[in-house]
Amino acid sequence: xxxxxxxxxxxxxxxxxxxxxxxxxxxxxxxxxxxxxxxxxxxxxxxxxxxxxxxxxxxxxxxxxxxxxxxxxxxxxxxxxxxxxxxxxxxxxxxxxxxxxxxxxxxxxxxxxxxxxxxxxxxxxxxxxxxxxxxxxxxxxxxxxxxxxxxxxxxxxxxxxxxxxxxxxxxxxxxxxxxxxxxxxxxxxxxxxxxxxxxxxxxxxxxxxxxxxxxxxxxxxxxxxxxxxxxxxxxxxxxxxxxxxxxxxxxxxxxxxxxxxxxxxxxxxxxxxxxxxxxxxxxxxxxxxxxxxxxxxxxxxxxxxxxxxxxxxxxxxxxxxxxxxxxxxxxxxxxxxxxxxxxxxxxxxxxxxxxxxxxxxxxxx
Length: 365
Ligand code: UD1
Ligand code: M6R
Prior knowledge:
Elements: H1 8-14, H2 16-24, E1 28-29, E2 32-33, H3 42-47, E3 50-55, H4 57-74, E4 78-82, H5 83-89, E5 97-103, H6 109-120, E6 124-129, H7 135-139, E7 142-145, H8 158-174, H9 182-202, H10 206-216, E8 221-226, H11 231-245, E9 248-253, E10 270-275, H12 281-293, E11 297-303, H13 307-310, E12 317-321, H14 329-348
Parallel strand pairs: 3-4, 3-5, 5-6, 6-7, 8-9, 8-10, 10-11, 11-12
Antiparallel strand pairs: 1-2
Helix pairs in contact: 2-8, 2-9, 4-8, 4-11, 5-6, 8-9, 8-14, 9-14, 10-14, 11-14
Bound molecules: uridine-diphosphate-N-acetylglucosamine (UD1) and 5-amino-5-deoxy-1-O-phosphono-D-mannitol (M6R).
């Protein structure tokens, strides 16, 4: 089943040009998005007061990556809930809400309990899942199967990118009645079409990421700074590193840097800064300057051709990635971090597909 790969995680990372293609198959036609599972419910969703995203772990991070473009394309306020935290707080969920549950397996206990809670409170419940016939798929009012194919590695990789793409199509479908955003929607649809080939291109960084991993093998900790569309990339990259490579890692909002994390910076702690082109680029350039002036050990992810724009004196290590529509960039940017987590794990001698203490599907609370 692993074919020419050593591990399922490795196979699933490299499968992403294909899994993203199957996620979109039959759903993008003549510049329109067709999601059979949402068609009948789009009017209700457009009228809702709020979209609440609910999930755990990587699925929560995928929803966080979707939040900016869902807000932008629909104009509906979006809030985020970690499933267990919503339950702990018994947070407010109303009839006028659209609650979107994101889960690869569709069987995560916390997510399903949050679903029961949202159903009791009368919200419209939408599922985004990889598993046809799962409890989530059956109990939600409607939803989208992401069709990424079976994911075996405990670390979620291809499901993450397919979840983001499924939510991009959902946002496009909800916003499709708005004339003012038509040009933006067209640009995103063309970005989606070119995504699989951009993913093939970014996967060519494999050897470079292995080399980077070998330089980090003895580090105790790794920070990842992102913002805007790529705040989620920072959280998800750090989650991959801690989950499989068993290395402490934190994803952080770059805008929060001066409010505490800056105190950690020295010449030893490796810090990845995501600084690909989007509206936040110049803010990330100044974050890099501030980290360098404190002698930070930086690894900067930037758009192709931007190496000297992000680090003019050559004192950072640079990862150059292909550019896509800004809101889809998280799909590209996570891939070098998945590769890095994979190689770090192999080099550190840990079990890639079955990390210590973890289960693929967390079916108990
Ligand atoms: C469906 C078929 C697909 C077929 C296509 C042809 C299934 C599972 N899918 O795909 O094989 O090629 O029509 O037009 O038979 N749903 C939920 N909650 C979820 C996920 C989905 O309620 O979390 C519901 C949807 O609202 C929908 C149904 O399940 O009623 C199928 O969803 P999906 O597979 O995404 O729909 P299509 O893409 O139309
Ligand atoms: O099946 P789900 O998407 O609901 O699972 C949620 C989390 O348990 C899962 O994403 C977990 O964080 C992964 N092991 C991360 O790689």
